Amino acid sequence: MFDKGPTREAxxxxxxxxxxAAGLATAALVSPTRANEERTDLAExxxxxxxxxxxxxxxxxxxxxxxxxxSFSNGYSVPLALAIDSAMTESDHVRSVRVIAPRNPLIxxxxxxxxxxxxxxxxxxxxxxxEPQYVxxxxxxxxxxxxxxxxWVEVATNGCE
Amino acid sequence: xxxxxxxxxxxxxxxxxxLLEVKAIISHQxxxxxxxxxxxxxxxxxxxxxxxxxxxxxxxxxVDLHEAVAANPFFQFYLRASExxxxxxxxxxxxxxxxxxxxxxxxx
Lengths: 161, 108
Known about the structure:
heterodimer, A: 2 domains, B: mainly beta, five-stranded mixed β-sheet, three-stranded antiparallel β-sheet, 0% helix
């Protein structure tokens, strides 16, 4: 189940690239000032993507838990639950977690900010997904390091239209 | 679109050091700016772009929302009960709209 992603990517990459390019052109005309980055190069690996967005190389970590359904009937409202193992002390805490959907027309989903001793790095919400993809969560720790987790999600319908 | 209605579910009492579960939701279309109307005109973006939870005036949980947060944005999150006081919940919308709720918390 988990290795479905690369297979699907390989079979549909050409069509997706074409529609992706068209989408980019349209969006640029419509909204030149949009802050949220457009759909990314489909061949880009999660680590490379995060490095390009943040300038830092993330490490995949078992401290990060990103729970999403492997497949979901519609892309309009897909459950997402995040948790990071952290003492949340002044000297060791999670500053923020950024959620990215690289195959959405606009890739940013949400960024959650936490405060040591005040909030736990644990949150549930619901998100929109345009197509099957790896959803990424990138945690920024207080020592500036980045932790990465990813979850493959199949959606049956486009939630971004 | 009807006026957004915010709701929160949070305990009103807690013991010091306890972890509080908070649920916050607002009814909102979260219009992405990617859709077109029947005439092919782009429907302008209008989303809730920020959610803030304040505990006695201090930001303790903040979310930057983008287009891919589902309609009627919902968050379940966890706060450490430290002292009695006031919890504020604030949703900011594109175009300057602000929706807010407050609740008292008693910590013993």
